[in-house]
């Protein structure tokens, strides 16, 4: 576990296994705010032990889940007697799909997990005015995604709405995602904390993520100069959008995304995995073309 002090009252906890993930804690005047809870009770106990040594654990705890993904909520069970705050859609998805995620990603568990739902939900935003803390709905990576802004230190916590090199998209409304990132820019934050990247002291990643989304929305993506990693994320995004379009009954748009995916695969290095993906995409295109 790596710990960084951020501003006058923030602590950034970073775990590298099974993949790099951040928790952000704000030691405010009246409450201790914990943004996301990672993969279970074991890392949370480590975090709380550190905070105890810093004499931060005498205040009421408010836990915030930025979105429903399992790697952001499995430590909730350590805070059953505290406020666990999230957007109303976050609670719904965890309730509907959480047990399945526990089974599907069981090898990522860190300690014995009892699925614990948010117990306070909001639709637009919640303010803790006495502490200068704002939680607000910022749809992007997922429809339920929300963010935290510390008005004292000008720190913005965005969950998975920002990622390098490109954001991962799971919603149809890309314009809504664009609006979220444009709103982030108006905050002019001194520090930006995301779920899986290094602490940001500028808006470089924010602007590059925004440009990617704007170009994707306008169908102006030029993937010829993409790195292997960029190509992989872009492939994931357009196939996800294709799947969402199929579910929405928009076969024509879905076909466009799958054709773009096929083009990416044709540009990729040959491998058994690429060949399997070509077969899968080819079958989807065939079915949609009927």
Give a brief outline of the structure.
This protein has 290 residues and is an alpha/beta fold. Helices cover 39% and strands 19% of the residues.
Question: What is the string of SSEs from the N terminus onward?
Answer: EEEEHEEHEEEEEHEHHHH
**Can you tell me the CATH architecture of the largest domain?**
4-Layer Sandwich
Q: Provide a count of the helices.
A: 7
Structural class: alpha/beta
Strand order of the largest sheet: 1-2-3-4-5-6-7
- Say what oligomer this is: single chain
- Under CATH, the homologous superfamily of the largest domain reads Ribonuclease Z/Hydroxyacylglutathione hydrolase-like
Summed up, the domain count is 2
Ends distance: 53 Å
Largest sheet at a glance? 7 strands, mixed
CATH topology of the largest domain: Metallo-beta-lactamase, Chain A
Principal-axes shape call: globular
Strand content: 15-25%
How much helical structure, as a percent, in the residues?
A: 25-40%
Instruction: Identify low-pLDDT runs.
Output: none
Mean pLDDT: 95
- Reading off the top of the CATH hierarchy, the class of the largest domain is best stated as Alpha Beta
Q: What is the tally of beta strands?
A: 12
- Radius of gyration in whole Å, from Cα? 20 Å
């Amino acid at each position: 576990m790596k710990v960084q002090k951020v501003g006058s009252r923030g602590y950034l906890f970073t775990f590298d296994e099974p993949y790099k993930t951040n928790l952000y804690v704000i030691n405010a005047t009246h409450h201790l705010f914990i943004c996301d809870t990672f993969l279970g009770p074991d890392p949370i106990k480590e975090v709380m032990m550190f905070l105890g040594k810093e004499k931060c654990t005498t205040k009421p705890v408010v836990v915030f889940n930025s979105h429903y993904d399992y790697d952001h909520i499995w430590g909730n069970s350590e805070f059953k007697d505290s406020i666990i705050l999230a957007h109303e859609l976050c609670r719904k998805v965890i309730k509907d799909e959480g047990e399945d995620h526990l089974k599907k990603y069981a090898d990522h568990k860190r300690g014995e997990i009892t699925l614990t739902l948010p117990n306070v939900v909001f639709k637009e935003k919640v303010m803790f005015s006495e502490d200068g803390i704002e939680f607000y709905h910022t749809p992007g990576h997922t429809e339920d995604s929300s963010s935290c802004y510390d008005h004292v230190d000008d720190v913005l916590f965005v969950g998975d709405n920002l990622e390098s090199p490109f954001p991962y998209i799971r919603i149809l409304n890309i314009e809504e995602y664009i609006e979220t990132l444009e709103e982030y820019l108006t905050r002019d934050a001194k520090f930006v904390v995301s779920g899986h990247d290094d602490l940001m002291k500028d808006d470089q990643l924010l602007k590059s993520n925004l440009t990617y989304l704007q170009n994707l929305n306008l169908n102006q993506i030029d993937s010829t100069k993409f790195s292997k990693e960029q190509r992989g994320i872009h492939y994931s995004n357009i196939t996800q959008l294709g799947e969402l379009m199929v579910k929405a009954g928009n076969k024509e748009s879905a076909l466009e995304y799958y054709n773009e995916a096929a083009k990416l695969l044709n540009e990729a290095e040959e491998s058994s995995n690429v060949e399997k993906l070509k077969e899968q995409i080819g079958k989807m295109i065939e079915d949609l073309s009927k």
